[in-house]
Amino acid sequence: TRGKAKRKADFTLRMTEEKIQNLEQDILNIEKLIQEHAADYVKLTELNEKRELLQIELDIQFEKWMELTDA
Fold it and tell me: What SS3 state is found at 40?
């Protein structure tokens, strides 16, 4: 059971790291779009809201990652 728990923890850690990488890339993509739509207030507002939500999720995943690496 200890080996199974270790494998599960390793898998969870890898998945969390993958989510972090994907979120970071999504944020970079949104930031590029923000630059492209700087003159469009409506689009800019929408993109900023998306970026904010992605950042919140990224913070959550970082907290999860820190918990998993401390274990």
Answer: coil
Q: Residue 21: which of 68, 54, 66, 67 has the closest Cα?
A: 54
pLDDT at 27: 98
Q: Residue 26 in contact with residue 54, Cβ under 8 Å?
A: yes
CA angle 71–62–21, rounded 5-degree value: 115
Distance of CA 41 to the CA centre of its chain: 25
| Cα–Cα distance, 33 to 71 (Å, whole number) | 38
Cα 9 → chain centroid = 19
Please, how many CA atoms are within 13 Å of residue 17, restricted to the half-sphere of its CB?
8
pLDDT of residue 71: 58
Please state the rounded mean pLDDT for residues 41-45. Answer: 97
